[in-house]
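Incident review: delayed structure delivery

Summary: a single-chain prediction request sat in the queue longer than the usual turnaround. Root cause was a stuck worker, restarted by the on-call engineer. No data loss occurred. The affected request and its eventual output are reproduced below so the record is complete for anyone auditing the incident later.

Affected input:
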Amino acid sequence: MALDSGLIGSGLFVAFFLSTMLAVLRATRLASPLPHRAAALDNVGRGLAAGLAGIAVTIATVSSIGVISWLYWAYAGICVAYVRVVQAEAARKPQPPPRQATPDPIPGGRRAPQ
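Output delivered after worker restart:
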């Protein structure tokens, strides 16, 4: 990697993946207290963070030939999209429960004469 792009390019590459990993971990922490409908976001974040750790090991041990580098960038894009979804879900105001229909005070639904 360092031979192809130099130390500056390698540093930028590593910095991008580290910042993506930190963003995913922060978003996972942010997703933990969300309501039940968004509870799966917590588990998705853990899976994405584990995948990024696996990609880091792969980057360190395998040369980026062929399609492998495309997969790194696509996975990083999925991680960034996850962070955006969690941020949007956390910013959403909680919806109040639907109001119950009040019973009609006059039986039969007729209006009182005026």
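Verification: The chain has a mean pLDDT of 81.
Action items: add queue-age alerting; document worker restart procedure.
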